[in-house]
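[retry 2/3] WD repeat domain 17: previous attempt timed out, resubmitting with same input.
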Amino acid sequence: MVELGQWEKALAVAPGVSMKYWKKLMQRRADQLMAEDNDDAIPYCIATGDIKKLVTFFTGRGQLLEAALIAQVLESGGVGACEGNVCEELAEWYFQDGCSVLAACCHLAVDNVQLAMSSLIRGNELELAACVGIVLGEAANQSTVYCLELLARKYMTTPTWEVSADLLHMIPDNYILLAKLCAFYPGSADEINQLHERCGLPLSEECEALAEVAMSEGDLFSAVQFHLLSSEPEAALHIGIEHVKEQLTGSDWTVDSVQPILDLMSYIRTDRLIMAKLTEARSELLILCGYIGGLLAIRRQYSSIVPALYEYTSQLLKRREVCVPLKIEQLSVELDAWRACTQSNSNSPPSERQKEEFSPALVLCGADYVTGSNLPSHSDVQLSCFTGHRIQGPVFVLEDSKSAISHNDALMWAKVNPFSPLGTGVRINPF
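[retry 2/3] WD repeat domain 17: success.
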């Protein structure tokens, strides 16, 4: 009867042989129907208790909600591997669709706090992420700190400087972060000193002497920091840039050894950085930040902006008179090597080594997708200055009020290179 395709009759008489034979026949019928992508397989799997096969069936068809529901029934009373895997797939589907909040909910449903926070931060739901992180407490500490840093950057503008300071005060070990805030603050001398006092930092008049002391003690990072806080922050660039260039001429430097001081220098006040007398220093700072930003983008798998960062750095090297230990040919070779490595598997998830190396790794690795990323463009068509293609989803307009990039690209760019893609020396703030 089975060979004739009369499955119902065969199953009706199969218990007469044995229940074991009947179950085996039911499983064969379920497999056949699944191979045909037929929904009739569902009751057969339920009847035989083969729920895992049913979860696989739904997952393979992209019916992740149904798969998650079945997995929860299967593993009621605790979170099992099956439910966790399905929820992770469902969360990724939501995230790629620009629904980061729903993605976070899926991760929280299986107690995956790190991935939940990652979804919110990479979706730029920073206020919500901060609230969730504070409620979750220790389990989300690292992600919460990173989120508060990004929020503080968001509010480093008039009239919300005090909000930025309040956010940074919520972070333990916040001295350097507060110093960056004060260094970037563009107020009058009295207003700057008031902010210094609010943040527990020395007055700007005292900082130059402190910088000299730090330099004499061999503490270059502190020297740069105090110079930035002084009334003559230009000195910080000369000291810091020379140090970075010296590092890059060696063979044992790493991104982590030069990025912190570059990030610190990037907080020099914009009105000072764009001064004509700082043209060379500004150009060198932009080039170095662009190059290290490109390496950070590779590390964090921000694939869509890696070519743009390398092109940005190359163009600055071509157009500006600078003396940095970088060559356009070197950048071209590195970019080609990266493309060769990623071409065959461009959407691979973060490796285990990446997850171990970068903290909080799951927050830092992987592209950003804000709400509405997959929505079509409206009638006011904007072309990305990175790719020349039409931007899908939210648009971020740069400081010239003409050039535009996608909001996703703007967020990733700002996380690895604080300066605008236009090379003006203006910081980018898409948060």
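[retry 2/3] WD repeat domain 17: The two ends are 66 Å apart (CA to CA).
[retry 2/3] clearing retry counter.
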